[in-house]
């Protein structure tokens, strides 16, 4: 299944579905929609086979949210393609002024020591910390053309 087909299925009705999921051969991606944002959770592995689908999935969420939490606490493996996908999600969030928080797993922390020594990704210790952060800080309104 192509990334665009995944996005078409996953985002057909984001406002009416509280939870949506997509499964690849090594991971399950789930989005939980809130009033002003979403939590994208990944359980399993982000590798070369699904990193692009993960990035597309998370970036589509970022397009409709004030905030996005990427919960990777259940991630058992992430390759360099997964790190590139996270950078792509971060760039999308910056361009849409969507507040991003990432909850890392030990696998991600290991990769970040090598790939992100400047700690550019907005990491938080837990999902509850991330949700508290995004609820505390509201972003300014933006005009829609």
From TrEMBL:
InterPro entries: STAS_dom (IPR002645), STAS_dom_sf (IPR036513)
Domain of life: Bacteria
Pfam families: STAS (PF01740)
Protein name: Anti-anti-sigma factor
Biological source species: Mycolicibacter minnesotensis
Taxon lineage: Bacteria, Bacillati, Actinomycetota, Actinomycetes, Mycobacteriales
């Amino acid at each position: 299944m192509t990334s665009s087909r995944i996005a078409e299925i996953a985002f057909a009705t984001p406002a009416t579905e509280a939870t949506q999921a997509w499964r690849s051969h090594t991971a399950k991606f789930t989005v939980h929609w809130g009033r002003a944002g979403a939590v994208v959770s990944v359980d399993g592995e982000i590798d070369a086979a699904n990193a692009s689908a993960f990035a597309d999935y998370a970036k589509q969420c970022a397009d409709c949210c004030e905030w996005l939490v990427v919960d990777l606490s259940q991630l058992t493996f992430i390759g360099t393609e997964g790190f590139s996908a996270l950078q792509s999600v971060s760039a999308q969030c910056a361009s849409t002024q969507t507040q991003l928080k990432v909850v890392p797993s030990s696998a991600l922390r290991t990769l970040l020591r090598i790939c992100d020594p400047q700690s550019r990704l907005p990491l938080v210790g837990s999902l509850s910390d991330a949700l508290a952060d995004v609820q505390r800080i509201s972003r300014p309104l933006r005009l829609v053309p």
